[in-house]
Amino acid sequence: MLWLTLSPAFPDDRSPSSPETWAALACWAGRFTPRVTLQPAAQALSMEIAGSLRLFGGLPSLLQQVRSDLALQDLRFNLALASTPRASLWLARAGDGSVCIDRAGTLTALQTLPLDVLQPTPEVMLRLSSFGLRRLGDVLALPRAALATRLGKAFVLDLARALGEIDDPPRWFVFPDHFSHRIELPAPVEIAPVLLFAARRLIVTLTGWLAARNAAARELTWRIEHGRTEFTELSLRFSAPVHSVARIERVLKERLERLVLPAAALSLTLLVEHTELREARSGGLFDGVSGGVSGDGEGNREALAELLDRFTARLGEGALQRLTSHADHRPECATRRLVAQAKIDNSAVLSAFPRPLWLLNKPQALKERNGRPQHRGELTLLAGPERIEAGWWDSNENESDVRRDYFIALDAAQRWCWIFRQQENSSGWFIHGWFA
Fold it and tell me: 195 and 138: one domain?
């Protein structure tokens, strides 16, 4: 096992103090591993990261990401890495940034630690000083039985746990079912886009909580508080569930740029009530393989979803719509307009004949000459007929009962069009659409 411990750099008035703040920090740590332990009494947080190294591209990359996130949240912590949680805690308190990836390295680093990082009881510390011991290495060189007699069994057991000689079972942090975190702003904010800097802290914490639960969110609620009873609520709805910092931040930026605050903002809260299990997709066996579901396909889906979200944030809810197929043989009824977040209906009507993308709002009557349809000259029939009989169940509506024979035709300008004639009246020709 490999333990990374964070301990506040003392003295620092910006260090976490309340249980809520420590819980939010544990949620953030979920970005790196779900195996998180909190020790508020010891002012520390530990993460077991051995299983996360490959995901983050190795230990240096993971440590860099941790430091970057802490800087973003304006938190000052000492970091240390060791093979046991207690050893990493002591090394973090020392503040020298020790990185020990195995038991041998951990033992070597512990030798030089001052005894105050163990935070023994005043009585034990006084006895250690009276023995002339100043470093942990001095203590480890003494017989354990003698230490137990003079300093107590608990002290010796802590040494054994730090060295990995006996088990030190952790008490894992339980991630909450719902996300709610509030931060006080350092100063009143009167311009909404300025809130983005504080919002980043909440977004980073949220994505850690989502990662630990293998979840994604489709809707986020932001509460901008102006006083005890006055607040502005801002909802972000996404076309696909989100779990990445960058995507949430870009959409929030679009909304904040359009928001006018009624009064200065004093605090900011982020709430997530409902989540969805993050969808797992299979990658290709070989990089760049075509014809299968690959990482590039996932990237394209993410990019399209983000584009829709940013358009919606900029233009407003319901402003962005799309066409989706509908199970109806009548061409004018085969599509529906839906808000961009809606899911596509896959119950499309399949046809052996090609259909034009551009349908006219209403079929236009064509002139005829000797029974042949005319449009800036005589049309040449290329394919057809395709007979469509549908809509009889909607006989209470005007012109819903369709009985037509469709043809693909070519006009004098070499443009392909879609025309039909009514079955009841073979002399009536109409144009219904154009092919690209």
Answer: no
